[in-house]
Structure formats: structure tokens, C-alpha cells
């Protein structure tokens, strides 16, 4: 009978607990699934943040190491067919002009008669626009490109300050004076033939002509005769200084494309198939390799580095060096580059310039002999008005007024790109004569340097379209490097920090939840094991560890003490039988005495309306077998159940069920003396709260009677 009662009591408790948690099974599974999905999303999100952070930091490092702007800019500098820089070089969309000032002779008769020295006055400017192009471009296998230059001129009357091409001027007879100079030292019979020719053609050393004819050629009987009898020497019938200076029909040039060195793109490789000019000896005077024709200079110029400039009209390369502070033209910034000091000193100051002394004959300081570039004519170049030249050059001619502010040349170059922002090249063309006493009609020009004209090749500034384009390339794009580095670095560090912090918090939260769920599973398993009469050695480690930890502390309010005698009696009975039910005393009526001396198991269920979690604690009176179940999430069905269970009861209720031995108490009196409590706190029936200690919720601690 006792066994039957015990079995019925256990079955009742089992049914009660089954009913209590059966309606929660579905919601718990659903909650676990949702929690798994949320955990998976959080893990994926953290992984993505980490990956993006590492990618951003890697990008910052790559930006710092490889400097993407520099790579892009160097790539843009390379000359490629139909490329942007190539098109700008082939047909520069710039406003390039040449201003020409003529030296009009004002005392021709008095000078020829020997009464006065030569007097001149400056007339001009006569302004032409230069359409600079590179035609017939061919790309070669050695990373160069060959081309034929073309520089046609277009008259600009509105810029000529009232001057006209048909203005009448008095100038030197270039053909007559050139022939006289070339044959002055020839045998007598040659000189006599020339004198006869001069008389028959009525040639005069000073002629009246228009400005255009002098610059671009005027009819001359001597030129026609020279072209007829000496075609290899004079291939033209008209003599004009500007016309000869801009004759590129026999020229062919080769330029570097910028592979493999982008800084050299657009610079000379050869001129007429050679890296040197045949009229000069030594690299300093003759080497034109890496020189610029003015379209583009060397890129990435260092502050102390010189750049080289070459133009056919100058007949020589000339070095430029940086002076002054940075200047702004439009939206771009550059530096002034000027001709090297003593460029025309012929070795008087700079020993290296002695190679400009043609055939060992050095002209006065301030002149350079370019006879070989002007068909053998005695042409010399200087700065305007013999600036920085020998004093005698100015004293022999009246009307020379050198002014560095007006007559100095300057190039404004953007050093990174080699782009000329502004340029002004000023050069004077003179005729320098030796002894002409063998020709009486021109004897007055003996040992005289007569100025004819000076010109300025100028580009005031870049057009707006080029200024805007290169402003983007040179001022805006360079911000890619610092901005890209700092943005990527800050974003990478921020994302890594955020991802690590979030992952740490998530792992901590997950560990707490896992511990709660794990202990809850163990508690339920232990409870079912007790209900079904399982062996007592099924108590799982989480509770054991928790009891061991708590046993060292004081004031363990959830542990119910038991006398040593009771404990020993209990252990003795447990050893006698493997089944707790066999040791259970017979159930008695309500009036029977309580089960003194019997150990008891404590089952405590706590529920609070303020949260949505619940807790069950089962404490075996033996400290070694204490069992704990904590914190389960609640669903709305629990609220209804709690409401029905409470049904107007006080804020807190306790239900104690004591069972003797491994199971449950054998009599109702034992229930009254039990130290196990089932607590329902359902003042509002809303949910379950984790069970800790009864005093934390204002309840009473379980007591033995």
C-alpha cells in the first residue's frame, strides 16, 4: 500500500510538472531557434565588420606604399597614340605669339658717308600668332616618336599697337652684306667679279622696304643669282630673317614617349637624326638630348636641377635654372626659370662656353656666332639691345637701351608636370662683320655688329580649358593620397574596434545564456530522474560545482542543514538498497506524526510577474546531492497559467513538497514539515523571474519544523 501511495504521489508530481512545462515546450523551441538565428546574424555581421576593417587598413597601407596618385600621374604623362597628353603635345591648344621689333636705320646716308656712327630706332611690335604643331608622327620601337615640326605664323593686327605689315622701314641689305663678308678674303679676281655684280644690280648695303618684306623676304637680284648658280647654298629667292628662322621644311625630330621614364616624355631624343648639333664641339654646346622645344619640359624637376631648352632659331641648347619664389598663374603654381649666367660669354667667364667660339674665333661677350644655322650669313645672336654684352657693342651703335625688366627671358614651369605656365624668350639677331675694306661700298660695316631685329616668343598664360584640366590633375587629384590613407586608416581602425567590442560583448552574453540553459537542462533532468526513481548518482556537475563553491561561503540561505545523525541514517539506508522507494516508510494519515529523521529533497519553484522568466530549484537535503535549476524564458501562456494559479492570492505564495529519502515524503505531515517550497509570485500573472534567494523578493526563507 505504501508503495502504491508513493507511486501515486510521484505520478501526481510528475503530472503537475509535466502540465507546468508542456505548454512552454513549443515557445522555448521557437525562442531557441530565434536565438540561434540572431546569434548567427551577429557572428556574420562581426565577421563582415572585421573583414572590412582589415581591408580598409590594408588599403591605407597600400596607399602609403604605392602612392596611387603618382602611379596615375606617371601613366598620364606617357605619350601614347590618341592619348590625352599626346594630343596636347601634338597640337598644343595654347596662345603662342611672336613679337618682332625692327631696328630702323635713321641716318643711312650720314653713316655710309662716314660722318656718323650707325643710328637705329626700335619699331614695333609686329605680332604674329604661332600655330605650333607636330606633324607626320611615327611611333618607333625604341620608345621614341619621329615628327616634322610646323610653325606657321598668323598676323595679329589687334595686338600690334597700330603697326602694320606694310610699314616702310630702312634696313640692312642682308644678301649684299652676307656675300661681301663671305668673299672678303677671297682672291682678287673673285672680289672683282662681285664688285661688277654689285654695280650691275645697283645693290646698296642699306635698303628701303616694308616691314613684312624684311621679315619674310624681299626681291633681291643677288638672291636670285645665288639660287641659280649656287642652289646648294641658297635654296630660296627671297631673303627674310623670320622666314628663314621659321623654315622647318628640312627638319625632322625625334622625341621620347616617356617609356620607361615618364619624366622624359616630350623631350628631344635626336634632331635631324643626331643627339648633337654638328656646328659645335663637346656635349655642353652641342648635346640637345633631353632638351625641350617649349611644349613640355622635364617632369618632376628638383629645386637645384637645371632644364634644357632648344629652338632652331637659337641654334644651340641653353640651360635654364630656377630663381625666385613660387608664382601663381591662374589656378596653377610654378617657378621662374631663366637662362644660365653668362650664356653668351664665349668662355670669357664660363670656361665651358668656349666651345661656342666657331672655328676658334670667339666673338665679343654677349654674342654667339650662328652662321652655320643661317646659310653661312654672318649672323650673331645676343640679348635685346646687347644686354649683358660687351660695352663696345652698345657704344658702336646709337639707340641701344638695354633694360633687364623688358629684355630678360623667363619661363614659368610647373615642376611636377613640366608644363609651361608662361614663357617669354627674347633674342636679338645681328650681323657681325669682319674686315670688309676690300669692298669700298660696304667698308663702313667693317668690325661692326649691326642690330637688325629682336623678337619675343611668348605665351602669357594657359587657356582656361587647360588651366581647369591641369588644376584637377595637379591640385585636386593629389589629395587622393593623404585623404585615401587617413580615411581608410580611420575607418579600418574604427570598424575593427567596433567589431571586436561587439564580438566580446556577444560572447560574454552568449556564455551567460549558455550557462543558464545548461544548468536548466541539468536541473530538469535531475528532477525527472528523482520523479522516476532513478539513482541518486545522476546529479550533474553544474549543480555539484555550484554547491561546492557555495559550501565554502557563509550564510547559505538556500541550503537546508541536517543533523549528522540524520545524514548517517540516510546514507545507511541508501546503501542498503539501490531503490529509494524500498526505503520509504508507509504513508500515514493526516493525523500521523511527521517523518522525523528522514532526509528530505527540496523543490522550489519561483515565479514573479515582473519578468518573463522562471526558475525551479530542487535542493536535496544532503549537501552532496543539491540540485539546481535556474531561469527559463516565459511566453504569454505562462501569464494565463500564473493568473489561474494565483487567482487573487497574495503577492507571493509558497508550495512545499517534501519527500523522504530519494523520493518524496510518506505522509501529509511530512509535507507540513518539509523544507521544500514551490513559490508562485503572480500578483499580476505576467511572467516568471529567475530564482535566487527568497529574501531577494521579499519572501520568507524555507524552514524546517
Automatic annotation (TrEMBL):
Family of this protein: Belongs to the CD36 family.
Organism: Drosophila pseudoobscura pseudoobscura
Keyword annotations: Cell membrane, Disulfide bond, Glycoprotein, Membrane, Receptor, Transmembrane, Transmembrane helix
Top-level taxonomic group: Eukaryota
Cellular localization per UniProt: Cell membrane
Record Pfam families: CD36
Bridged cysteine pairs (disulfide): 285-355, 315-373, 357-362
Cellular component, GO, one term: cytoplasm
Main location (coarse class): membrane
This protein's name: Scavenger receptor class B member 1 isoform X2
Gene of this entry: LOC6902757
Residue numbers spanned by region Disordered: 585-605
Membrane topology: Multi-pass membrane protein
Amino acid at each position: 500500500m505504501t508503495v502504491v501511495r508513493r507511486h501515486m504521489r510521484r505520478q501526481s508530481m510528475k503530472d503537475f510538472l509535466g502540465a507546468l512545462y508542456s505548454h512552454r515546450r513549443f515557445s522555448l523551441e521557437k525562442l531557441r531557434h530565434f536565438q540561434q538565428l540572431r546569434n548567427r546574424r551577429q557572428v556574420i555581421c562581426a565577421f563582415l565588420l572585421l573583414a572590412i576593417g582589415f581591408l580598409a587598413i590594408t588599403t591605407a597601407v597600400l596607399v602609403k606604399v604605392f602612392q596611387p596618385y603618382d602611379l596615375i600621374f606617371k601613366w598620364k604623362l606617357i605619350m601614347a597614340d590618341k592619348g590625352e597628353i599626346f594630343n596636347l603635345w601634338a597640337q598644343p591648344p595654347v596662345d603662342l605669339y611672336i613679337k618682332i621689333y625692327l631696328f630702323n636705320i635713321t641716318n643711312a646716308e650720314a653713316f655710309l658717308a662716314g660722318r656718323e656712327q650707325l643710328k637705329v630706332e626700335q619699331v614695333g611690335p609686329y605680332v604674329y600668332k604661332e600655330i605650333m604643331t607636330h606633324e607626320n608622327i611615327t611611333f618607333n620601337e625604341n620608345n621614341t616618336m619621329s615628327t616634322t615640326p610646323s610653325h606657321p605664323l598668323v598676323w595679329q593686327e589687334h595686338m600690334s599697337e597700330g603697326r602694320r605689315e606694310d610699314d616702310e622701314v630702312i634696313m640692312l641689305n642682308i644678301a649684299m652684306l652676307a656675300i661681301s663678308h663671305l668673299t672678303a678674303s677671297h682672291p682678287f679676281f673673285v672680289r672683282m667679279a662681285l664688285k661688277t655684280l654689285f654695280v650691275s644690280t645697283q645693290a646698296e648695303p642699306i635698303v628701303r622696304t616694308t616691314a613684312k618684306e624684311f621679315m619674310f623676304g624681299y626681291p633681291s637680284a643677288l638672291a636670285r643669282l645665288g639660287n641659280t648658280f649656287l642652289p646648294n647654298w641658297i635654296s630660296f629667292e627671297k631673303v627674310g630673317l623670320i622666314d628663314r628662322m621659321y623654315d622647318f621644311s628640312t627638319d625632322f625630330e625625334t622625341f621620347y614617349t616617356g617609356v620607361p621614364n615618364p619624366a622624359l616624355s616630350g623631350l628631344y631624343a635626336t634632331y635631324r637624326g643626331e643627339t648633337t648639333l654638328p656646328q659645335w664641339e663637346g656635349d655642353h654646346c652641342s648635346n640637345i638630348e633631353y632638351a625641350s622645344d617649349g611644349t613640355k619640359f622635364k617632369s618632376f624637376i628638383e629645386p637645384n636641377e637645371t632644364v634644357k631648352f632648344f629652338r632652331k632659331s637659337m641654334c644651340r641648347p641653353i640651360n635654364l635654372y630656377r630663381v625666385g619664389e613660387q608664382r601663381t598663374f591662374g589656378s596653377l603654381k610654378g617657378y621662374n626659370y631663366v637662362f644660365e649666367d653668362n650664356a653668351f660669354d664665349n668662355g670669357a667667364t664660363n670656361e665651358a662656353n668656349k666651345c661656342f667660339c666657331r672655328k676658334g674665333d670667339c666673338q665679343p661677350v654677349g654674342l654667339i656666332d650662328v652662321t652655320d644655322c643661317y646659310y653661312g650669313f654672318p649672323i650673331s645672336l645676343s640679348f635685346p639691345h646687347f644686354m649683358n654684352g660687351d660695352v663696345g657693342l652698345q657704344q658702336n651703335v646709337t639707340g641701344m637701351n638695354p633694360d633687364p625688366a623688358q629684355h630678360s627671358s623667363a619661363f614659368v614651369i610647373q615642376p611636377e608636370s613640366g608644363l609651361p605656365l608662361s614663357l617669354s624668350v627674347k633674342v636679338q639677331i645681328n650681323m657681325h662683320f669682319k674686315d670688309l675694306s676690300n669692298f669700298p661700298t660696304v667698308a663702313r660695316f667693317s668690325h661692326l655688329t649691326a642690330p637688325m631685329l629682336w623678337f619675343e616668343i611668348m605665351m602669357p598664360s594657359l587657356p582656361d580649358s587647360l588651366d581647369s584640366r591641369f588644376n584637377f590633375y595637379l591640385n585636386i587629384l593629389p589629395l587622393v593620397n593623404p585623404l585615401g590613407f587617413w580615411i581608410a586608416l580611420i575607418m579600418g581602425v574604427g570598424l575593427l574596434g567596433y567589431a571586436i567590442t561587439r564580438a566580446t560583448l556577444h560572447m560574454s552574453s552568449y556564455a551567460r545564456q549558455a550557462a543558464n540553459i545548461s544548468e536548466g537542462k541539468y536541473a530538469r533532468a535531475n528532477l525527472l530522474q528523482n520523479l522516476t526513481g532513478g539513482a541518486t548518482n545522476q546529479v550533474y556537475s553544474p549543480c555539484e560545482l555550484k554547491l561546492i563553491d557555495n559550501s565554502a561561503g557563509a550564510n547559505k540561505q538556500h541550503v537546508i542543514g541536517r543533523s549528522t545523525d540524520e545524514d548517517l541514517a540516510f546514507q545507511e539506508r541508501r546503501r542498503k538498497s539501490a531503490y529509494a522507494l524500498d526505503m520509504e516508510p508507509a504513508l500515514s494519515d493526516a493525523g500521523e506524526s511527521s517523518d522525523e529523521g528522514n532526509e528530505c529533497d527540496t523543490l522550489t519553484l519561483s515565479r514573479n510577474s515582473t519578468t518573463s522568466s522562471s526558475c525551479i530549484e530542487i535542493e536535496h537535503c544532503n549537501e552532496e546531492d543539491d540540485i539546481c535549476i535556474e531561469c527559463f524564458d516565459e511566453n504569454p501562456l505562462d501569464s494565463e497559467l500564473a493568473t489561474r494559479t494565483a487567482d487573487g492570492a497574495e503577492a507571493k505564495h509558497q508550495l512545499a513538497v517534501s519527500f523522504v529519502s530519494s523520493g518524496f515524503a510518506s505522509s501529509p505531515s511530512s509535507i507540513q514539515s518539509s523544507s521544500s517550497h514551490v513559490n508562485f509570485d503572480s500578483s499580476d500573472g505576467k511572467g516568471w523571474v529567475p530564482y535566487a534567494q527568497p529574501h531577494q523578493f521579499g519572501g520568507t526563507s524555507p524552514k524546517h519544523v
